[in-house]
């Protein structure tokens, strides 16, 4: 059995692990014991699971692994943001980020190795798409963050805003969410889980009917298709009209407000006129808007607007009754904008 065929505990739901225990001649309650060690106590090997019979520990170790990924490096910035570069079994690397804001402690996780969306402000897509992450690989990002926390800290939120388009890896992402949400898993409330998407229409509609009260965050970034297609090339096949229709459907089915993400780029989408157009576009939609100055990336020419321009943009939206949050820039001192640390690693390997 090669490494890619070894079963990983983090890829399994409770029923799947119960079936595995039964196949090894053990009672089903062993599954919850194993999961408690992994998700509650931070165990990384079967040998640490002291309430399991020794022969069962050996059986598990022969057929399974607790973790399939490992942390390569952790980089910290002055605002308690920490970025994890995580090694996968196939020598690929991904990123996840620990964000602290008072008692709110968030893990920002990736869902793919690379990205096919090629958004023109994001380093994630510069190397293209390698593959989807498994559910377990996604879950382990959150576990790495959780296991790194101080004794008095607790993981409270998950955001799917790292490398990759979550809804392009739909099945693995939904399975990871169910594991993160489960009482036997990470126990994170669904309303504390946010999924960011560039607007995969079928994915948004499917997610609305999953019975999960997760928060969708749609990367809008423009008040019209002409500007949005410059920023997000995939918009040419999607279109803002279709995205907003899917957003309305999500709200109607789930009752959950929609968040729209809006990166402010100087000279492109950040003028007062852009804000007026955006206000008219979103009129009547139960939503909130998160605005954020673009993080400069060496490979792109776009820069953030002035603080005055940002304030005018925000005030214009609020004048029209929209709920606006100006998100703080965290992580740019450690290349924590999406994909930048992974990109730097690839540049280093290429040069050497």
TrEMBL record:
GO BP, sorted A to Z: methylation
Residues that coordinate or bind [4Fe-4S] cluster: 115, 119, 122
Matching PANTHER family: 23S RRNA METHYLTRANSFERASE, RADICAL SAM CORE DOMAIN-CONTAINING PROTEIN
Cofactor info, note text: Binds 1 [4Fe-4S] cluster. The cluster is coordinated with 3 cysteines and an exchangeable S-adenosyl-L-methionine.
Function noted in UniProt: Specifically methylates position 2 of adenine 2503 in 23S rRNA and position 2 of adenine 37 in tRNAs.
Needed cofactors: [4Fe-4S] cluster
PROSITE patterns named among the record's database cross-references: RADICAL_SAM
Family as reported in the entry's similarity comment: Belongs to the radical SAM superfamily. RlmN family.
Location of this chain's protein in the cell: Cytoplasm
SUPFAM superfamilies: Radical SAM enzymes
EC number: 2.1.1.192
Annotated positions binding S-adenosyl-L-methionine: 164-165, 196, 219-221, 295
Further remark: Reaction proceeds by a ping-pong mechanism involving intermediate methylation of a conserved cysteine residue.
Matches recorded under NCBIfam families: rRNA_mod_RlmN
Protein name as catalogued: Probable dual-specificity RNA methyltransferase RlmN
Catalytic activity: adenosine(2503) in 23S rRNA + 2 reduced [2Fe-2S]-[ferredoxin] + 2 S-adenosyl-L-methionine = 2-methyladenosine(2503) in 23S rRNA + 5'-deoxyadenosine + L-methionine + 2 oxidized [2Fe-2S]-[ferredoxin] + S-adenosyl-L-homocysteine; adenosine(37) in tRNA + 2 reduced [2Fe-2S]-[ferredoxin] + 2 S-adenosyl-L-methionine = 2-methyladenosine(37) in tRNA + 5'-deoxyadenosine + L-methionine + 2 oxidized [2Fe-2S]-[ferredoxin] + S-adenosyl-L-homocysteine
Residue span(s) of domain Radical SAM core: 101-333
One Gene Ontology MF term: methyltransferase activity
Residues at the active site: 95, 338
Keyword DNA damage belongs to the record: no
Keywords, comma-separated and alphabetical: 4Fe-4S, Cytoplasm, Disulfide bond, Iron, Iron-sulfur, Metal-binding, Methyltransferase, rRNA processing, S-adenosyl-L-methionine, Transferase, tRNA processing
Source superkingdom: Bacteria
Taxonomic classification: Bacteria, Pseudomonadati, Planctomycetota, Candidatus Brocadiia, Candidatus Brocadiales
Gene of this entry: rlmN
């Amino acid at each position: 059995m090669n490494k890619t065929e070894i079963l990983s505990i983090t890829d399994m739901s409770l029923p799947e692990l119960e079936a595995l225990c039964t196949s090894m001649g053990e009672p089903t309650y062993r599954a919850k014991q194993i999961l408690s060690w992994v998700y509650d106590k931070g165990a990384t090997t079967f040998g640490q699971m002291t309430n399991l019979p020794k022969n069962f520990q050996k059986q598990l170790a022969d057929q399974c692994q607790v973790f399939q990924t490992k942390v390569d490096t952790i980089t910290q910035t002055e605002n308690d943001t920490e970025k994890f570069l995580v090694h996968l079994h196939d020598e690929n690397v991904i990123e996840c980020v620990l964000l602290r804001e008072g008692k709110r402690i968030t893990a920002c996780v990736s869902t793919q190795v690379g990205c096919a969306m090629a958004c023109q402000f994001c380093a994630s897509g510069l190397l293209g798409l390698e593959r989807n992450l498994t559910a377990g690989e996604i879950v382990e990002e959150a576990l790495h963050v959780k296991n790194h926390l101080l004794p008095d800290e607790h993981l409270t939120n998950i955001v799917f805003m790292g490398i990759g388009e979550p809804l392009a890896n739909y099945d693995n992402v939904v399975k990871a969410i169910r594991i993160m949400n489960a009482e036997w898993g990470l126990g994170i409330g669904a309303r504390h889980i946010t999924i960011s998407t560039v607007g995969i229409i079928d994915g948004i509609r499917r997610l609305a009917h999953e019975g999960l009260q997760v928060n969708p965050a749609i990367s809008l970034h423009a008040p019209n298709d002409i500007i949005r297609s410059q920023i997000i090339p995939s918009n040419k096949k999607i279109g803002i009209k279709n995205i907003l229709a899917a957003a309305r459907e999500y709200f109607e089915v789930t009752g959950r407000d929609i968040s729209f993400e809006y990166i402010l780029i100087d000279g492109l989408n950040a003028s007062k006129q852009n804000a007026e157009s955006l206000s008219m576009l979103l009129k009547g939609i139960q939503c909130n808007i998160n605005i954020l100055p673009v993080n400069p990336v060496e490979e792109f020419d776009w820069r953030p607007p002035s603080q005055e321009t940002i304030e005018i943009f925000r005030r214009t939206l609020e004048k029209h009754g929209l709920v606006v949050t100006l998100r703080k820039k965290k992580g740019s001192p450690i290349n924590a904008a999406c994909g930048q640390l992974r990109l730097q690693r690839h540049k280093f390997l290429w040069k050497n």
